[in-house]
Write a structure and sequence with these properties.
Largest sheet: 4 strands, antiparallel
Shape: globular
Strand order of the largest sheet: 1-2-3-4
Order of helices and strands: HEEEEEEEE
Strand content: 15-25%
Helix content: 10-25%
Number of strands: 8
Amino acid sequence: MNIRIARVCAVVALLAAAAVPCVPADSDRGRESDYAWRNVEIVGGGYVPGIVFNTTEPGLVYARTDIGGAYRWNARTKRWVPLLDSVGWTNWGLAGVDSLATDPVDPDRVYALAGTYTNSWDPNNGAVLRSRDRGRTWRVSPLPFKVGGNMPGRNICA
């Protein structure tokens, strides 16, 4: 029990130390007014096994994650836009994206092969998601088999 408490204390100390900014020795630099303090945004989760570029529209980029959905890069805001925030408790498996494709002819179309696990304990089958508006809305085509966005081999990009 004491070892566990010591480990927790060590992690807390490291996190506290990491939160303190390094201040340059030069007295004219490093003042609080020289920093632009803001929150750190943590979006989605999991591993990002694929980044997909549209071949006909420069700057149109998508990312897929193993358990955290799919994202589209917004060059204007310089942020990743979540595309599967509509996934909830009843269809949670669709947050695992095994594959993602953007249409080279119609840049507004994007497709995702979704499903998180192929294990027997997961009652859900996979689905093909289709969007005509760059992932703002989706049509779902259920599949008769499981898809494993969070299974071994998810880092193998084709």
